[in-house]
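Replying to the earlier thread about multi-chain prediction with a worked example.

Input:
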Amino acid sequence: MHTTRQTCLERDAQDPLRHLRDLFELPADTIYLDGNSLGPLPKATPERVAATVQQAWGQDLIRSWNSAGWFEWPLRVGDKIGQFIGAQPGQTVATDTTSINLYKVLKAALALRPGRSRIVSERSNFPTDLYIAQGISRDSGHRVELVDQDDIAGALNGDVAVLMLTHVNYRTGAMHDMAALTRAAHEAGALVIWDLAHSAGAVPVDLLGADADFAVGCGYKYFNGGPGAPAFAWVHPRHVDAAWQPLSGWWGHAAPFAFDPQYEPASGIARYQCGTQAIISLCALDVGMDTFLASQALGGMAALRAKSLALTDLFMQLVDDFASANGLSVVTPREHGKRGSQVSLSCAHGAYAMVQALIARGVIGDFRAGDAQQADILRFGFTPLYLRFVDVWDAAQALRDVLHSGEWQAAPFQQRQAVT
Amino acid sequence: MHTTRQTCLERDAQDPLRHLRDLFELPADTIYLDGNSLGPLPKATPERVAATVQQAWGQDLIRSWNSAGWFEWPLRVGDKIGQFIGAQPGQTVATDTTSINLYKVLKAALALRPGRSRIVSERSNFPTDLYIAQGISRDSGHRVELVDQDDIAGALNGDVAVLMLTHVNYRTGAMHDMAALTRAAHEAGALVIWDLAHSAGAVPVDLLGADADFAVGCGYKYFNGGPGAPAFAWVHPRHVDAAWQPLSGWWGHAAPFAFDPQYEPASGIARYQCGTQAIISLCALDVGMDTFLASQALGGMAALRAKSLALTDLFMQLVDDFASANGLSVVTPREHGKRGSQVSLSCAHGAYAMVQALIARGVIGDFRAGDAQQADILRFGFTPLYLRFVDVWDAAQALRDVLHSGEWQAAPFQQRQAVT
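Result:
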């Protein structure tokens, strides 16, 4: 059947996930394709945050550490996240930032592989992951070896302590085969750390099934936890009590309220906590997870994935009609098993101005600059919780119109800061 | 003049800071003497937090990184804190947690003193500070040497890399002479890290005047930033560009939006940032600081200190009348220059039950357990922003009544969790 705006509306009417959109506060006249950078506001968040601020903090004050259970929140929220990454209860903690959690797990992993001198990662990994590894390397003497995607398996040998990868690439949306690469690393005697920033809540993840060693990820993208929401960490049970993580603060102590001058790590993932957590932001992440959990009754991650693939397939099909004639090309893998929940278009020049022209039309995507090795990228995230097929149609039409009208070439646009 | 409840009311009527109390939401029928653990809610906070959640996040979404200036918040809020700790603008950053910031500055300080093998601290320092030092020591081989207060100066020699102290003791309220101890450490060639958790916003602090090297501190106590508010870090300009801090994440990069795979630290205190910050919690801290800044027009930290000393003098005077007969004694130093903004009473037994009986009467203090070396403590924080002289009178009367009635011996109280 030929795809038209009408057929998109019909698909939306039949979409079993269509009511999940009602759980979000979405600005009028906006198609938000940047939920992979900052997820939108769940409708339940303002009231829950206000209750934490006005009742739990304002009225109950210090007593809320008990009465509101604040001390338990990182593990309680962690368990909600755990349901979407193939973890068992008690294995995941929501705390600190992705970068800090990566520092914890990378130091712990290196301590478990003494005598091995290398950390292998991907040249196109998200930069902050590489920065954290470089900071550790400067102190510990480990060598950080950056390779291209196709060379990862070949780089694994008896001198590699840790393979550190981001599951779904932030620029291209390409997804690694977690199970296969984990197996390859283990065959070389190395441990694997997976950064799930662009895959948790975006694609089915099965950490235990893949036999992964460590994972970290983000609360403010697909989980809609709010700007700078706490991140998470997961550690396989076989490792969790085998090493101290280096940020040995009071919240990770075996008896945190005993005020013992000697540190004794808690057993389990609790030891991956450090200092007092930002409770108001953690409250917003908790609502983000509760909102995400509403998908469980409708088929959960499998249903979300099926819709995500349908949305991204549709967008690629629609832009194929006009992309190449305008110097654009889809760089996200076409094969379902090899991509996340975004579509990236490479562009020889003008990508930034195109994204700005789209934003002026209410279609919010984002831009990632290229360099000597790679072209500029227009990046569009497709989040099945709140996007409709008709949004995909309208976004593709807007891109076509921006290209054909040439309006992106006319306007002066300021360089925009971007986070992810 | 003999002190009565009436003379307390008269002092309140003449108190030039009396209107600052109106800036806080304080529960009815409560005297809150635990602002040294979790400061109360400023009245302006709910609306500002709601605006960040509903407008900046909900409506403006990803654009708020620019339009709301989120990226600048840690340094902007840091500068507000800097005014109360003797820092110049651009030297303080509000970010992460106290424990994590201590890790950053301790690692940086150790890197600046190669060849020295010891970290000296106080046995009665706040435990999480010791835990962080122990975590570093385990990795780096430095020895953590814990001494009693009177032995600090004697422990400083040519093998000491860092002297790490909390300025005001969390249990006793005793305050170190920052300038003298910093001088003694420098004479031994060591660097000094000051934890200001119980002094920032509680007593005048002059980091530059004392020639301190590094400092960290807390946003949720005297600065009223909300539960788990971001903490802060300060580094003397002579050191700030001299070392990497170990948590080398994207937010501390010289060009954080360039997505360069190589880490290059920003110059200045910006490099002490790591990952994406909890913006909603940071918003609440910003309001806490704006509320605190209202004191500047009324004499600022000097006026707050004068009232704090008057409040604590009064409380000590009042409890002196009945303390010893009931097995209590004031352990906080009487001398003004040697104490912070709290009064601690030691107690051979029953301290926890007494605090619970006080809470039942609406007087919220807290309890810190003792051990083989030290007795249990009843701890009362006196924060001149919102406490009145009559509150001190009523709190002392409540304590007297609790002791005389024996009600604390009757009730079964559950062990309470506590944070600080």
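The radius of gyration of chain B is 22 Å.

Feel free to reuse this layout for your own posts.
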